[in-house]
Amino acid sequence: MSRRYAILDVFTNTSLAGNPLAIVLDSEGLSDEQMQKIAGEFNLSETVFVFPPENPGHSANMRIFTPKLELPFAGHPTVGTAILMAKERFGEVSNEQDAVVVLKQNIGTVRCAVILRENAAAFAEFDVPSLPEPAGPTHNVELIAAALNLEPTDIGFENHAPSRFRVGPPFTFVPVRDLDALARAKPVQSMWKAGFGKDGHNDAYVYCRETRSHDSAFQARLFAPDMGIPEDPATGSAAAAFAGVVDYYDDLPSGTHHIRIEQGFIMGRPSLIDLEIDIDGGNMHAVRIGGQATLVARGELFL
Fold it and tell me: Pairing state of beta strands 229-232 and 70-71?
């Protein structure tokens, strides 16, 4: 049986940058084992499998796999799938075309606003399906530094210290003092579980306040070696959880806060993630993730 697929570069407005994503259309009849093997065959950070919606008000059901396991939610697959679903619906457009795409994921229903543009990268923004929440304590700074090939003095800036938050899968957020420390970070496999835990979601999101562009607020790197992802060029679910970090340490005032995050620059896949946080009366009320994506390939799987 022939099954269509597409490859998109997500969180970028140019091809061969950002985070590549495989999306398998016509996924009906695939078993969990087959989907996991297909994700391993693509060997990208995530592969999406699209199914017809169970609810007629939805655009599609989708499941997300890394090369080693299934995820309940992820950001760059949501942005990429929303844009591809809009392209499937409208085809080539003149000027601009707005669309609303509703995707059912394992975490719940995710609403996405999409803007298709003629001869330009499309943009999608989605409402994060649940607010970030603390995900337990971190290990001590010495173990975290050793797992990242850093010195303990590299860890932390201002009042920021390592923390754990989650929207779906948890992440350990590790602040480092500057771009030099960020560039020197790399996973030390023999120390990874000691620094970040033994469960399947022991991912490290390393970030600093120093950036390449004055329009950005943070630069970050994401390491997930136990998930088969040595480094991820752009991680929307981590950016969603990072809203909890920013709110906790930066004590955001009431209003809507627009925060641009650079990721993937050090590994040669520059990505820009737009994070919006709504604060009212000292409480977080909503989080949104947005970014651009480009379609770079289409093909068929014969399975």
Answer: unpaired
* CATH number assigned to the domain comprising residue 25: 3.10.310.10
Which of 33, 41, 46, 262 is labelled catalytic? 46
Active site residue 28: no
Contact present, 224 and 203 (Cβ < 8 Å): yes
pLDDT of 184 reads 98
- Same domain for 144 and 112, yes or no, is no
pLDDT digits (tens, 9 = 90+) for 187-222: 999 999 999 998 878 999 999 999 999 999 999 999
- Residue 68's CB is within 10 A of a number of other CB atoms, namely 14
Residues 153 and 63 in one domain: no
Asked whether residue 138 falls in the same domain as residue 23, the answer is no
Count the neighbouring beta carbons within 10 Å of the beta carbon of residue 31. 8
The C-alpha atoms of residue 30 and residue 5 are separated, in whole angstroms, by 14
